[in-house]
Amino acid sequence: MARRRLFTPAWLLAGLLIGALLAGCSAGKAQGPGHIQLSPPELDLGAIPNTGPVSYTLKVQNVGRGWLEITGISTSCGCTTAEIARQRLSPGEATDLVVTFDPQAHGGLTGPILRQVYIRSNDPETPEAVLALRGTVVAAGGAHQDALPQPAVLSPDPLENAVTVYYNRACADCLTYVQETVLPLLWERGYPEPVYKDYVNEPANRGELLARSDALGVPPGLQSHLTVFIGDRIILEGHVPQHVVADLLTTPPDAFDRIVVYQDRMIGARDYTVWAFRGEPQTYPLDTPVGEYLAYLQAHREHLPASPAGDRRALLPLVLITGFLDGLNPCAFAVLLFFIAFLFTIRRTVSSIWAMGLIYVAAIYLAYFLIGLGLMQAILFTGEHHLMARIGSWLVIVLGLINVKDYFFPQLPIHLRIPTIAHGAIQDWLKRATYPAAAVGGFLVGLCTFPCSGGIYVAIVGLLTARTTYWQGVGYLGLYNLMFVLPLLLILAGVGNRRVLHRIRLVEQSSRRWVRLATGLGMIVIGAVILIWFV
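Above: the chain sequence. Below: its structure as tokens.
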């Protein structure tokens, strides 16, 4: 008798997955989210000489039970910058935040200042921590200078204006830039007076700015201390060169749907960054016309993927469709039908069969959900979110081709199925016909069916990690797994007697090859869609 093969490619893949799950869980170190703590929570700078920049160091600590991801840092004025040593902190870990204030950015003017540093993270309780800096700029040698001006804030009805300025009132240079650089260009072209919104003295405006930026898909790395929305089409972040603003205002509407230009420095600027929500942001020297980017955009428009944030709404149908496709799994179907038939054989009642079937399906859901969390933690640990999404997409295509191969050439090696060695263990548990045994059997099926169709799962988890926050990704993961077990729930709901069960089993056995073919083709299409439109 030939020796039974203990290891198959599918079983090896399952082992690798379990290893990734364990690695991801261990990488997380603890359950729960990260929480940010600033030490101190506010800086009193006292008297600040107006001769040059001064820097201050404080601690940023993760006091939560999970990883803390710093996703973006910005300030309320270009005279203030902030740099953090580490952007990913394990539970209990701390890092340095260096804040620099340069009074020369305002020409050395003296007077009281209020600046704020905004630290965005995956902390669900404090998604944006605010560090306040207070002090008084004094002239070197005791010379007197005029205090920093406090300009009046215009407040027209925002519903009647297409232009909105979010700024720090205490930063006179920001308002001067808007009034002397941007406003003349707007007035020349018939734009109305802007709506000015001070987000330091009125914190609600800060929340409105963040919500609007996130809704439009402006990434944290392109959000500045000064933001001018010209409608929702042109977004100026910081002190954008005047020639760039002028060119954008005269550009035909079909040149871009939406564009953001970023230049955060008030002095010493050398370049600016521009992005039309397709492909990657591009950076150019300060005197380069924006037409160079628009020409690049026009030449490569068909090959540049759409903005991840801008297409976030497209994730929901993608998650639902791929989850259902992943759930069309002949492996899990066969085991469920075997389990139900066995329960009928030992004369269990229909209500008992449904109860055990629901426990079985719930255990599969739990196993697959935990696999997804492990993969997500592992991808977050590597930091290569988009790369993992691309690798997962190619894996989907390869596994889809294997399914197609099984339809046309079933005799060839390498198959996507539950490893043979696992069949006996699963059946032994299910034959015990108890609720705990149904849970254990379902959990084992969830682990062992991953090699059959888990390629889609890898791609989707990579995509969610790259395109959503952690908790958004967890929510999408829950929806995906609900769709994954939906085919099993439909089968369970339709099983009311032995005759129906017998017919379902006959259909399942006769259409198994067709299901593999359809699933394989669907996997190839899904992998291509993710590669072309999402990563």
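The radius of gyration is 29 Å.
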